[in-house]
Every structure is written in structure tokens, then in C-alpha cells.
Amino acid sequence: MKIKKLVITILVLLTVQMCGPEPKLDYNVTKSESYKISEKKMKKNSLEVKKGFEADNEKFEKKVKESAKSFIENMVAKQSISGNETFADQAMKQMAVNMIEKGIEYQKNKIEEIRFFNDEEAEITQKVKVFSNNNDSFAKLQNEYELFKRVAEKLQYKDTEDMMSQMEKMDRKEVFSKLMKGISEVIEDEFKKEENYTEMTTTVSVRKVNNTWHIKNLDEQIKAVDVLFSSLANSM
Predict the structure, then answer these.
(1) Is 120 helix (H, G, I), strand (E, B) or coil?
(2) Pairing relationship of beta strands 28-31 and 108-116 according to DSSP bridges
(3) CA 224: distance to chain centroid?
(4) CB-based contacts of 2: which residues, under 8 Å, 6+ apart?
(5) Max CA separation in the chain (angstroms)
């Protein structure tokens, strides 16, 4: 199962640009040559663009997290440690989902420019720090021994052998629950490391609808989230 290639691709497709409120403009505001508007009004309007953009980002982020949570719950309910699936298989699935969810949560970005084309259309350019796994941290965790070694440490067992020995005394759902907790913590550790990120420039088109700015085709992007998680499920 090519976890690294699959999940990194999904993270790029699900790139979400989140930015907190700012007391003053720290980005450029420009316009097309044909658009007639005063500098003062344009800068004021840029705050409304940013506000609508952030609201849509939150909506998209919420959808991604809900889909990831639903994916995990369905996985536990339908496939929890089945006779045909090993702990390692289940662990790798959990790792993939956590990578997607944490990749969205830990993404960092900064708006560089808001460019207006007219009263109802604009484009946002920003620099985004996204998880890239440049140093192959997660590639190492695809090794069953390395993954369970880290999980055992997180769950405070002496070693992998001790963890597996103790888990033999538990029921299957409890075992899987503990594994998910340990894997989630291991994944989060990797997402906290600066060296695992790369910076990229992205542009997003926005449009004013009913006096509120929105990301273009947001509904289609939200629908695509379910398709992506469905593809993830079918590829494993």
C-alpha cells in the first residue's frame, strides 16, 4: 500500500488556506487596469474579501475533518480487526487518515496579495506551508517495526513485545482503539516538525454573491472531499 504517495497527493488536493484576523493590512491590494476604483475603497473592500475567504476556509476545513472522522468510524465498525486484515493493515489505514486530517490542521499560510478585477471578482495569492515529508519521516513509519515501536513508546509500554503481549488480554475493539490513539500521537509529532514542510504559492478565485465574498466553486470542492475519501478507501 503506497501510503506516502497516496496521502501526499490528497493533501495537495485538499490544500486549505487558513489565516487569522489581522488588525491592519499586511498584504498588497491591486487591481486590473480596466477596473476603476479608489485606493481607499479598494483596501476597505479587501477586508470583506478576506472575511468571506476565511469563512469559506473554515467551512471546507470542517468538512474535511468530518469526513476523516466518519471514515475512521466506518472503518472501525465494518473492518475492526477482521480475520483477513492484520493489525499492521489497520494501523496503516489509520496513519493515512490521520495524515490527511493533521495535514489540514497544521497547514500555515499568509495572504500576499488580493487583486480585484471588478466589483464582484477577485483573486487571492498566498504563500502556504504544507506538509511535504521531505526527510522521509513517514516513509520510515511505513515499516511495521518502526511504526509499532513508536506506538509502543507513546502508549508507555516497555517495548513492542510488551505492548502486543498486553493487548492479547484485551478485546479487539479496545486493542484497535489503543492503536488508533498511539498512531494519532505519532503522526502529530511529525506534523509539528518544521523540517517536514515546504512553502508554495497558490491562487484562489473569489466572487461576490449577495454582498458576501465566496471562494468560487466551493460546493464542488466540498463534494470532492467525499470522492477523495472514497478513493482512499478503495485503494487500501
Answers:
(1) coil
(2) parallel
(3) 14
(4) none
(5) 73
- CA-wise closest residue to 89 among 182, 4, 3, 167: 3
At 123 the three-state DSSP class reads: strand
Whole-angstrom Cα distance, residue 60 to residue 57? 5
pLDDT confidence of residue 22: 39
92 and 1 Cβ atoms separated by less than 8 Å: yes
Least confident of 42-46, 130-134, 159-163, 192-196: 130-134
Which has the closest alpha carbon to 95: 160, 159, 151, 167? Answer: 151
Tell me the pLDDT tens digit for each residue of 136-149. 766 777 777 888 89
- Starting at the edge strand found earlier in the chain, the sheet holding 121-131 runs 28-31, 108-116, 121-131, 197-209, 212-215
Contact between 65 and 104 under an 8 Å Cβ cutoff? The reply is yes
pLDDT at 147: 83
The contacts of residue 95 (CB under 8 Å, 6+ apart) are 3, 138, 141, 147, 183, 186, 187
Q: Which residues, 6 or more positions from 190, have their beta carbon under 8 angstroms from its beta carbon?
A: 137, 138, 141, 196
Residue type, 176: F
pLDDT value, residue 196? 81
Q: Which of 54, 61, 50, 51 is nearest to 15 (CA)?
A: 61
DSSP state of 112: E
pLDDT score at 17: 39
Which comes out higher in pLDDT, residue 64 or 84? 64
